[in-house]
Design a protein that fits this description.
The protein has 337 residues and is an alpha/beta fold. Helices cover 54% and strands 15% of the residues. Mean pLDDT is 85; it is low at 333-337.
Length: 337
């Protein structure tokens, strides 16, 4: 029995004991509701105050029964609560209630299904990006580790509808299926897609056939951690200078560069300007690597200077986080006259 059920059991046992005693004394002693309640409390607490009403053999036997029941319930409640307090489970239960409230308040968040090394890398990135997310795992050790580090987490199987609904799947922006079993990832993607038709789903696959199945059941993208690692290792061996260049480009000393996307919003500074007029490198220091055109969803690499930005175009840029934020700020400003 988990801690919540134990506390509920204690509460229900006390309530039933009070109801049983109150109505029992009302019937046996012919007293009022308040007097019967008073008799019940002093009996199960064994404080020894004076009795109310005229006792009989039946009422005395009933009192003995109430004393035994009261001692049993109080004893169980005391040992349970003390054990939970000493082991810190009472605090965890309180933190769990707070976490449930935070989870229910989430909106436009991300759901990470699974735990372990792959999930940890994703979690670290999401924390760095200050994104709203939660983790679903049935691994008790990872569950405790995440909760102690103030990471929102739900215990359960991501393949179950109830668990995904508790995670706010209907309000979620994206879901990552990073479970160790490909079958579980397939079931998770299928279940998530049935619950939310618009959610963006990325799933980890361990085989080519698995990748195809994941796409068929509703994944928007599939990635193979093993394949990516293998290609990286092979590239390091075959083309070490190119990989070294990429490492230098993305991380210079203690300054870490990153690829980011910025959307051109309607009425923004960027709308209807060409790449030269926007002066993105001069104003932000960013390098524009590509543009995903909204009109045909095609990716335009190394865009020409005369390309005119349209609403909902997506810029792929390379730079530091503060530079990206500066561009986003420019993109939110009203058009300059």
């Amino acid at each position: 029995m988990d801690d919540k059920r134990k506390l509920k059991f204690i509460f229900v046992a006390f309530a039933l004991l009070l109801i049983l005693g109150t109505f029992g004394y009302m019937f046996l002693l012919k007293v009022s509701l308040v007097d019967a309640l008073y008799m019940t409390v002093i009996t199960i607490s064994t404080v020894g105050f004076g009795e109310v009403g005229t006792t009989s053999a039946y009422s005395e036997i009933f009192s003995v029964l109430m004393i035994f029941l009261g001692v049993g319930v109080v004893g169980y409640a005391f040992t349970t609560v003390v054990a939970m307090l000493v082991e810190g489970r009472l605090v965890d239960l309180w933190k769990g209630s707070k976490m449930d409230k935070k989870i229910s308040a989430l909106d436009e968040h991300y759901i990470i299904c699974g735990s372990g090394e792959l999930a940890d890398v994703i979690i670290d990135k999401f924390i760095k990006e200050n994104l709203d997310f939660l983790v679903i795992t049935d691994d008790r050790a990872d569950l405790d580790d995440y909760s102690h580090n103030n990471i929102l987490v739900i215990e359960g199987q991501a393949t179950e509808e109830e668990v995904l609904e508790k995670a706010g799947i209907s309000k979620a922006k994206g879901l990552i299926a990073a479970l160790p079993s490909e079958v579980d990832n397939i079931v998770t993607v299928l279940t998530a897609r049935n619950l939310n038709k618009d959610i963006y789903i990325i799933a980890n696959s361990t085989s080519k056939s698995g990748s195809q199945k994941l796409m068929k059941v509703g994944a928007n993208k599939t990635m193979s951690a093993i394949e990516i690692s293998g290609k990286r290792i092979a590239s390091l061996m075959i083309k070490p200078n190119i990989i070294s260049f990429l490492d230098v480009v993305t991380k210079v000393g203690d300054i870490e560069m990153d690829l980011e996307e910025v959307i051109v919003k309607k009425g923004s500074y960027l709308e209807n300007k060409d790449l030269i007029a926007a002066q993105i490198p001069n104003k932000t220091g960013l390098i524009v690597l590509a543009i995903k055109r909204n009109k045909d969803k095609k990716m335009l690499f190394n865009p020409p200077g005369n390309y005119i930005f349209e609403t909902n175009d997506v810029l792929i840029v390379l730079g530091r986080e503060e530079q990206v934020e500066k561009l986003r700020h420019l993109g939110d400003e009203s058009k300059e006259g």
